[in-house]
Structures are given as C-alpha cells and as structure tokens.
Amino acid sequence: MNKNQTSKHHQLIIIGAGGAGLMAAVTARDLGIDAAIIEGNDRIGKKVLTTGNGRCNITNESTAMGTDEAVALSRKYHSNQTGFPLPVLQQFGVRQTIDLFSTLGLPLISLEDGRMYPMSLQAASVLDIFQLALEDRNVPVYFKNKVVDVIFSPNHPRFTIKCRTESEEQVVYTSEYLFLCTGGLTAPKTGTDGSGYVLAERLGHTLISPVPGIVQLKLDYPYLKELSGIKFEGLGHIIVRGEVIRSEYGEILFTDYGISGPPILQLSRKAAYHLGSGEAVTLSVDLMPGRTEEEVVEFLDMHWGIFGHRTVADSFIGILNKKLVPVLLKEAEIDQQPHLLCQDLSWKTKKKFYRILKHWEFKVTDTNSFTNAQTTAGGIDTVELKEGTLESKLVPGLYLAGEVMDVDGDCGGYNLQWAWSSGYVAAMSLAKHLSSV
Ligand SMILES: Cc1cc2nc3c(=O)[nH]c(=O)nc-3n(C[C@H](O)[C@H](O)[C@H](O)COP(=O)(O)OP(=O)(O)OC[C@H]3O[C@@H](n4cnc5c(N)ncnc54)[C@H](O)[C@@H]3O)c2cc1C
Asked: Which of 189, 200, 266, 405 is the most core-located residue (most Cβ within 10 A)?
C-alpha cells in the first residue's frame, strides 16, 4: 500500500447512500451488523431530494387494501424475471414501510391515487430522518469516495473495495459482506453514472441493457409546435406490430419535442424496449375514452345535427380543449375552410374526425434520455440473484438492492418502495445468514 492509501475494515460495506443503501444500513445496524456506507457524493440521498417534485413520493398505499397485498404490489414491477420482486415484497411491503418510517419518526400522509409522502411534504425530511437514524446508530458514511474497483477473494477479508477521493487519493476498504446499492443510470448528476454496473460485471454479473423508464416520448409529428403546452385527459395506447401492448389513462401534455404526462411516463418503458430492439412504435391517443367508437359517432352526428349552423371549429367548444381544435382541423384537412358549417361536413371528413378522436396516432421516434428519466429499466440480471434474499449466486457475500438490478416500478412511489423493500430484505437476509453460521 503506498503512502496515499488508507484502509478501513467493516463486517458489511454498502456502496451507495440512496434509498436502498440507507434502508439497508439502518436495518443491518438494528440487526447487530457492523455496517458502513461508501458514497461518491458529499451527502446522502441526493436523488431522493429530487423525487416527487421535491415532496418524495415514498410509497403508494393503493395496493395495500386488498387481501393479497404483495401480489397486487408486485404487479407494479417489471423485470425479465416477472416473478422476482414478489418474494421480496412479501417480506417488506407498503405496510412495513409505513410502520418503519413511523418508527424512525417520519409519519406519512396519503394524497392523490394512494401516493404517500412525508407529512411535511418535503423530500429533505426523508434525508434528515435517515441522517439522524445513521447518527443514532453510529453508522459511518465515507463521503466523496467513488468506488472504482471491487476485488473478491475466497479468503478473509473477502472484499477489497478501492475508492478514489476528490483529491485523487486512493482509499481501500475491506469487508466480509458487500451490498451494491449504486442505482441505475437516471439523473447522472445525482451520482448514478452506471459505475455500479461495471463493478457488478467485474464480479462476474451480467447486465441487461438499461433503457430510460418513466420518461417523456419524442414524436415525429408535424404540428408539435402548435400543440406544445396543451394538456388534456386522454387514454394512451402503445402499439407495436399492430397490437396494443399497454394502455394508460390520465393527463397528457404535448411538448415541443413530443409528449409527456403521467400516462405517457407510465407507457414509456414499453416504448423504450421496443424502440431499442428496432421495432416501429406507435402511440395512439383516445380523446374520448369514456365513449365507445359507436357512441362517439352517435354523439357527434347528433351534435352536428343540432348545431348544423355552427362552424366545425365552434362545434367542438366545450367538448375538447379549444387549443387542440386547429390541429384536428388540419388532420381532417379542412383547416383551409374556417367557415365550413357542420351541416356541410362530408361523410369522408366526418369519418376522419371519428378516427382522430378515438385513434389519434403518432410515430414514436425515441424517449428522452436518462437525464430526464425517473428510473432505469434493465440492469443486473436477477437470474444471477437468489430469490427472496438478493444474494448473488456467483459471489458469496455480495447482495444487490435497489435500481441497480433489473427491476423497475411504475410511476407513483413504486421505485422508492423497491429501494426500501430490497434494502431491507438484503439486510435481513444477511442477518439470517449470520445467525445460521
Ligand atoms: C427526478 C426523479 C424523480 C423521482 N421521483 C420518484 C418518486 O417520487 N417516487 C418513487 O418511488 N421514485 C421516484 N424516482 C425514482 C427513485 O428515486 C429511484 O428509483 C430510487 O431513488 C433508486 O434508489 P437506489 O438506492 O437504488 O439508487 P439511488 O438513489 O440512485 O442511489 C445510488 C447511490 O449510489 C451512489 N453511487 C453510485 N455509484 C457509486 C460508486 N461507484 N461509488 C460510490 N457511490 C456510488 C450514488 O451517488 C447514489 O447516491 C424518481 C427519480 C428521479 C430521477
């Protein structure tokens, strides 16, 4: 070891002080494990601060109502191994999360759609509470230490963790157990640059190509400038090879590059995967999801019949967002006839309106980048992890938690829930293992 190197040993080292790492550290310490965290940033949970528009949507209680809560919750997650999240969520789900935060001194409140937040509605409170919990438990956090390499040895100590500090000093830590809680690729400014994937790959793990999840879609559409900023309630469908593969309802927002809003963010993961494999992806928007196609035809025919003396543009007043109408007239190819009356609409033009109102189609060209995304779909292959314990099948003593692995959740608090659940389960599994040896 040269003179710039220092070395510290802990029973367990956790790389990453995000949601998963923090939950793992507090749980491990409560279970009597000598745990320490190594974090590249100068503070804990930089990403948590940005979550839920600064309010931190910690979890979602809407799945905690039925009889089989964990099964309902697990449907909110996606992975190449669809059944992988369930045994983790069965051990630590929404109720346990609410209870644990209450124990730590952070009461939660439920707002729209079951989304739960700290009562203060400040993401910073979540970090303050974790900071206090770490201090109460004397958990060391080594800040400004970027882990650049991890070496596994079958002898003791098993893990040698090499870090680089801001001053280019090399620091070496050693441990018997290692938790990789390094997150994915989203919001790289918060410290997640994908270096955790490199560390896992060096230890023999396989990376399933990450793509941005919960992200806006880019569209190839000639009238985006006119539409930018318009919000409306609608039903979005992602269509691949002529088949609807996922649908979501809610407030949709056009932007100058494409489309956003909760339903679009929810659909984006499917779009990203299919675009990534070179397939054509179409977004179809239903502007009148409350009515069937037949009902829309019947409704419009009656409406145009009653108000036949009005212009076509005026006939949509009170029915659609007014700002959408000029573009719909372009789509129906009657924008050059501003005085066209409903009574003079041709059958061909009417059919165009029926189609646009129920199936307004857009070519999806791309998603926005990881910088704008809220989660990473893909990650370290869960086939290489033991179900229900999160220990590596390849490297004894290595556990993964959080977004680093190939599990991602829907919008609405489910990604942080995965961080809490997997962080807790990794720590609990290690404690059980230690008590059995
Ligand atoms: C803008 C935004 C809003 C979001 N809002 C919500 C929301 O409201 N609700 C919700 O459920 N989810 C939300 N998410 C998603 C959620 O924040 C993440 O899924 C979750 O924080 C992942 O937790 P994690 O612990 O796995 O990783 P992270 O929180 O990303 O933490 C990983 C940590 O590891 C550190 N690290 C990485 N590599 C190294 C290394 N080599 N050496 C040392 N340290 C390293 C990083 O600095 C970082 O602190 C949002 C995400 C974004 C970007």
From this structure: 405
Q: Which ligand 1 atom is at minimum distance from the Cα of 414?
A: 11
The CATH classification number of 6-212+376-436 equals 3.50.50.60
For ligand 1, whether the C-beta of 205 sits within 6 Å is no
Beta bridge partners of 173: 8, 161
Q: Does the C-beta of 60 come closer than 6 Å to ligand 1?
A: no
With residue 110 as reference, give the H or E element that holds it.
strand 108-110
Rounded CA-CA distance 252/227 in Å is 11
Measuring from atom 52 of ligand 1, which residue has the nearest CA? Answer: 374
**Cis peptide before 326, with omega less than 30 degrees from 0?**
no
Going residue by residue through the chain, which has 437 residues, state the pLDDT in tens, using 9 for 90 and above.
444 455 799 999 999 999 999 999 999 999 999 999 999 999 999 999 999 999 999 999 998 876 799 999 999 999 999 999 999 999 999 999 999 999 999 999 999 889 999 999 999 999 999 999 999 999 999 999 999 999 999 999 999 999 999 888 899 999 999 999 999 999 999 999 999 999 999 999 999 999 999 999 999 999 999 999 999 999 999 999 999 999 999 999 999 999 999 999 999 999 999 999 999 999 999 999 999 999 999 999 999 999 999 999 999 999 999 999 999 999 999 999 989 999 999 999 999 999 999 999 999 999 999 999 999 999 999 999 999 999 999 999 999 999 999 999 999 999 999 999 999 999 999 999 999 98
Q: How far is the CA of 19 from the centre of ligand 1 (A)?
A: 7
| Torsions phi, psi for 259 (to 5 deg) | -150, 150
Q: Which atom belonging to ligand 1 lies closest to the Cα atom of 191?
A: 47
342 Cβ below 6 A of ligand 1: no
Sign of CA dihedral 191, 111, 120, 95: negative
Domain boundaries, the chain: 6-212+376-436, 216-368
Q: For atom 29 of ligand 1, which residue has the closest CA?
A: 18
**CA of residue 436 to ligand 1 center, whole Å:** 32
Q: Within a 10 A sphere around the Cβ of 104, how many other Cβ atoms?
A: 15
